[in-house]
Amino acid sequence: MNQELLLSWRRPCLPFPTTITKPTTVVFQPIRATLQTSFDEKAEILTAKEKRELRNVKREENKSYNWREDVEERLLKKPKKQFNSWKEELNLDKLAVMGPQWWIVKVSRAKGKDTVDRMMQALAKNFPDAEFQVFTAAVSEKTKLKNGKISIKPKPLYPGCVFLNCILNRELHNFIREECEGVGGFVGRMVGNTKKQINKPRPVSAADMEAIFQEVKEKQEATDKAFEEQQQLEILEKKSLSLSDKKVSKSRSRKPSGPVLGSTVRIVSGPFLDFSGTIKKLDRKRGLVTVGFTLFGKDTLADLDVSEIVEEKK
Q1: Whole-structure pTM over 0.90, yes or no?
Q2: What is the pLDDT of residues 191-202, one digit of tens each?
Q3: How is the beta sheet containing 101-107 ordered, strand by strand?
Q4: Quick one: residue 99, left, alpha or beta (phi over 0 = left, psi -120 to 50 = alpha)?
């Protein structure tokens, strides 16, 4: 064999030593599921009695929390169920169970008084055995006309509403709502469900009616008092006008006091004593008069004081 063809091999010199790690082997262990855990969870579930006892223990530990009061308050706030079904709730005959109550009837504002009168006549005719009482919350306003008469007109406090006291049932409700002209029904609230809904009348409590009666009484007293004060004021104005007219008439009819221009006077003092003459000039502010008389057959004028002359009576 030719030696030139033989290749020489040397071990390579590496810059750093290398170590070859053996691959780690992962051992997988099989998972064995048993039904023991489910039995343990069922064993931990408490019975109803044990839960109650546990709740009682917690409540006793938290003494600041009174669970009885909390439950009572929730029961009081929760409205009691009055009707067993919606049909029973819509039954208007159930209103008669409450006995005589005050109800609000909506009437026409334009002809409120006439509508109420016709409604009462129709109720008395068709329900002679029933008892009715009507109250219109209005104040009677007085107005004095030019001819001296007093006009009285009612001013309603609740326009379009009339209070009716009676025992209400379905028949009476339908008669007032459908047969009475000018009546728009009762004031109430919508009851029922999606199948059927109606506007069920709602009664007015006794406390609310007492408040309405008191309001009408107070406003009527205030209106009457204001009318009386207005009357007294008019009387005083008339008296003052009549007095002023009398004073003016007296001042116009009063005759001026003292001598008058052109009157005949007699001189009672001074150098022309006992002479008689006629007043030619008169100065009331200065209190002087000019008297003309005849002296030695000639007309003479003398300026005198008012106190020096006296008017001669004819």
Answers
A1: no
A2: 777 778 888 888
A3: 133-135, 161-166, 101-107, 183-186
A4: left
